[in-house]
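Something for you to look into today, if you have time. What I am after is a single protein written out in full by you. I want to see for myself how the chain folds. Could you add the entry underneath, on a fresh line?
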Amino acid sequence: MLVAAWLAVIAIPPVVLLRLRTSWLEALDRPAVQADWEAFRRDMRAQSGRDAPVTGPVQRKVPKSEEPPLKVWLREYVGLAVAAWVLFVSVLFGFFAALIAGLFAENQPRGGCDSQKDQQRDGEDAQKREHGKSLCKGART
């Protein structure tokens, strides 16, 4: 069950991203989006104080890219994003799976030193002040 959940968590978001990527890139290729990006860069240039006096309380840094960052990311870095997703989610999922497995393993009855017979023998040894006399499977020395 954990393996199926891990595969679903690993596979679904990258598949959705890759399917939507082409439509997002097409939407970002529209002239209106590019015009908005250019207007934003002009505004940042005006607020940076390079072309004119600073108009805002903070000096801004002008973006260097001629294209919107989302367009660049979707075109050039989507493979890196998928690899990072797989790596980080696998580590996080493995950690939580180990916690959950440990939680359920903790509630399972154990044999060996924790058996009813050994616990009774330990109690008898404690009354006789002979602690550690009843060795069970080398757990005590």
